[in-house]
């Protein structure tokens, strides 16, 4: 029992126990939910753990390697707990999960058994099944730079350093006409060149879809209207009047970084890398060898 909370260890040593399990789920939008398999409400760490939510967990199996911890949370979808529309909207994607073994007669006697995030989430027939990934999952993510012509930074991140709040690079306006949660039409968006927002991000800041965002596929002018089209539909409906934030896009090319954003000093690509045809060329006078199409 090494490493156990001392009060819990003492309790387990009595042979007659009052043990239950508690789970806390913290979404990225700040919502925190508590669940327990006990029959009454428990509270600690500022969280109320509710019974009768239909949530349970399979046996916790953790390894010392970098594989995904083999544990799952099972539950029934309900309006008072985990709702299907919020799962569809992506509200639970990447949510943090913590699981404790708790003495329900003395909640100070508890032990944190698991901490991780929600991975793959399936739902069918009014129920859901969520894969829980441990903290070592982050160590499986490839790190380091890739030598490529295009920029590897994300517009506005710590490597790019560009301030997206710079005047002329963001538009905050109310939604007007929305089709299929994917196509946004505006009667007037003066001051921005066509295609200015392509490759950018549209973020919803009001309404039931608040907090959701999508990557912009097209930004075109159709007659007197400006049309912003996303690659994929948002996970919730956007109504007319909901506040939107539309950020300028970057196609990762050096000329775009230089002339659109005036940020060439922070360009994270390698535009002068020779193409594959350079490595197999004969030592004779050749046309431009940059890996591009010869036309």
TrEMBL record:
Basic and acidic residues bias (residue ranges): 285-295
InterPro entries named in the record: Phage_phiJL001_Gp84, Phage_phiJL001_Gp84_C
Origin: domain of life: Bacteria
Pfam families registered for this protein in UniProt: Phage_BR0599, Phage_phiJL001_Gp84_N
Region (Disordered): 276-295
Occurrences of domain Bacteriophage phiJL001 Gp84 C-terminal (ranges): 195-277
NCBIfam families referenced in this protein's UniProt entry, alphabetically: phg_TIGR02218
The protein's name: Bacteriophage phiJL001 Gp84 C-terminal domain-containing protein
Organism listed in the record: Roseovarius marisflavi
């Amino acid at each position: 029992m090494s490493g156990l909370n001392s009060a819990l260890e003492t309790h387990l040593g009595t042979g007659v126990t009052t043990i239950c399990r508690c789970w806390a789920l913290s979404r990225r939008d700040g919502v925190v939910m508590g669940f327990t398999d006990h029959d009454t409400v428990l509270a600690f760490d500022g969280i109320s753990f509710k019974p009768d939510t239909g949530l349970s967990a399979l046996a916790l199996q953790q390894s010392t390697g970098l594989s995904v911890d083999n544990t799952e949370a099972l539950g029934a979808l309900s309006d008072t707990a985990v709702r299907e529309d919020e799962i569809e909207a992506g509200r639970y994607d990447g949510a943090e999960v913590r699981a404790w073994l708790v003495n329900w007669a003395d909640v100070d006697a508890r032990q944190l058994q698991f901490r991780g995030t929600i991975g793959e989430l399936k739902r069918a027939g009014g129920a859901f099944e969520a894969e829980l990934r441990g903290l070592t999952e982050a160590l499986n993510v490839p790190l380091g730079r890739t030598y490529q012509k295009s920029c590897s930074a994300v517009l506005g991140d710590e490597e790019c350093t560009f301030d997206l709040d710079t005047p002329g690079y963001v538009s905050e306006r109310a939604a007007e006409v929305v089709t299929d949660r994917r196509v946004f039409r505006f009667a007037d968006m003066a001051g921005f060149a066509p295609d200015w927002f392509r490759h950018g991000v549209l973020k919803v800041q009001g309404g039931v879809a608040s907090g959701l965002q999508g990557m912009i596929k097209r930004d075109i002018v159709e007659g007197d209207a400006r049309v912003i089209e996303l690659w994929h539909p948002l996970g919730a409906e956007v109504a007319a009047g909901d506040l939107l934030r539309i950020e300028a896009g970057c196609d990762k090319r050096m000329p775009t970084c230089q002339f659109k954003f005036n940020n060439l000093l922070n360009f994270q690509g390698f535009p002068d890398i020779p193409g594959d045809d350079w490595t197999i060329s004969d030592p004779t006078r050749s046309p431009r060898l940059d890996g591009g199409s010869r036309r």
